[in-house]
Amino acid sequence: MIVILFYLYLHNLYNQLSYMQDQGLRLLKLLNSRQFGQLKSFYNQTTLFNVIGAERSENRHSAFLRWLLSPDSSHGLGYEPLRLFLRLVATLKWGPQTFGPDLYRKILAGGGYDIELIEPIELEKKIDKENKDCIDIWMVLCFTYELEGEEKKYACPVVIENKIYSNEGRDQTRRYYDAMNSYMTSGNIEKGLQYKRICIFLSPDGKVPSCIQFTSMTYQQLLDYVLDPVSMMQMPDAEHSFVESYIRNLGRPSDTANHDFSPLAVSEQERELLSQVYMLDPDLFDEMLLAQYGQGVEKVIGKIIPSLDFATQQLFQEVWDANEDVLKAVVYQQYIGKKAILANLFKENNRDNTMYRVYYGKDRTEVFPNKRLSKAMAACAIFKAYLYIRPQTTLKQLCEAFPCESINSYYWDNYYSDLFYLLPDEYNEYGEPCLKFTAGKHKGEESLAEWDFILSDERLLLLKNGTEKAICVKLWRKGDFDRLLEHVEKQGFSKFIFIDECL
Predict the structure, then answer these.
(1) What is the C-alpha separation between 375 and 367, in angstroms, rounded?
(2) Which strand (E) or helix (H) includes residue 135?
(3) pLDDT of res. 118
């Protein structure tokens, strides 16, 4: 019998070691790949925007656009960036109507017309006496071209409202449109000169403005059709580096925003690298997401992933933490249509580091005095509090009071049928306590209790007035722990068990 048990132990240990080696090899192939190294280097480069904590500052982005579109800026490209911007505008909603058929064709062709700034590009343009309304980017252009031997000349005020996180204020774009009309009729423009209006609502995801005369433009469109072409033009090294730095800032997941970590736009070269990295091991990315963020990732990937064992989960969490920028960027690109779900998933508060204190009885006695508890320790404290009030409870009654099936999906789906087992009285030749699996894919095989259960003396559960000792499972994912708290409330245990969150 001893020989059989020893063989089973070695067999189980061999399988565990082989499994961990396989996971290590998968990670090695990913993290040491050329593509991953290139992305790591790309995102590790410091930019001015992240140095000053302005990765998602609307004012800083508007300031860059003014520099880019101004013909007298240090990039030395003259009106070329502005011409590219106007070509993009022409392809968007209201483009043909905005420019008219003749100028529209010339704008798309990129020639056959002259352009000049009647007024310099201005940021935070005041449009009312109280200075409550400020247009993010304001300019007035003059287009000149010939049609059938006749010179045509148009004045064109341009408004760019830049929204990254904030939403449009009530009737904000309508007020801006009215301000443009007032400007055109107030004598600011050469008398008799015809005019056109360009109204742009710039955002990461194509927000729709309230005023229908405004056209939605995304940062991705701005990158694809303005910034990328500009980056290939000849300009001084410092200015070229500035443009490249801005492009990198757009594609890098933000580490300063509180509510959205998603990239604003991703260059073609970067998109290709991100896709290549993901295709090295798609399942591995899904599993790392599961390890870090729990079952909520199933809404993103559209499938159910088998739960991970505790050791693998810890390993994948460490890898994610060490390579967060790159891994987030890859996931955002792969699940580009799930940006809103991912942004919510990646919120800092989903990295659940909440600590707890657990009390019991009318006097609110603390189970583990003066200790801030993790989810695992808090769960153990809840069970101990229950037994302090009901010390005669048997193992069967405790399992019925806290059913594994409805509380902890990690263990129920993979290994155990209950959250509690009697303290093992069988040990292998190495002195390690052994359990028998009672549910799941390893049914009937010997298990080491220390892998999945809390074994220290202070955390053992006393049953039948202290005559028996039980152990409880130690892995509690956020969703499972939340279900435990809900169960305590629904079953009325909260009348004598009190749980406080603490910083």
Answers:
(1) 14
(2) strand 134-147
(3) 87
pTM, 2 dp: 0.63
From the CB of residue 11, how many other CB atoms can be counted at a distance below 10 Å? Answer: 12
Q: What is the pLDDT of residue 443?
A: 57
Q: Crossing angle for the helix pair 80-91 and 95-109, nearest 10 degrees?
A: 130
pLDDT beneath 50, residues of the chain: 3-11, 13-17, 257-259, 349, 441
DSSP-derived pairing of the beta strands 150-162 and 194-195: parallel
Tokens standing for residue 257 = 């925003």
pLDDT for 3 equals 47
Interacting residues of 369 by C-beta distance below 8 A, sequence separation 6+: none
Secondary structure (3-state) at 50: helix
**How much is the pLDDT for 260?**
56
Nearest-angstrom CA–CA distance, 66 and 62: 6
In order of 90, 94, 174, 216, the CA distances from 196 in angstroms are 13, 12, 17, 18
Mapped to the 3 state alphabet, what secondary structure does 284-320 carry?
HHHHHHHHHHHHHHHHHHCCCCCCCCHHHHHHHHHHH
Q: What angle do CA 378, 381, 382 make, to 5 degrees?
A: 90
The identity of residue 7, as a single letter, is Y
| Residue 78 neighbours by CB distance under 10 Å | 13
Q: In whole angstroms, what separates CA 58 from the centre of its chain?
A: 19
Work out whether the CA dihedral 383, 389, 394, 396 comes out positive or negative.
Answer: negative
Burial 149-187 (b: 16+ CB within 10 A, else e): eeeeebbbbbbbbbbbeeebeeebbbbbbebbeebbeee
Closest CA to 472 of 363, 367, 353: 367
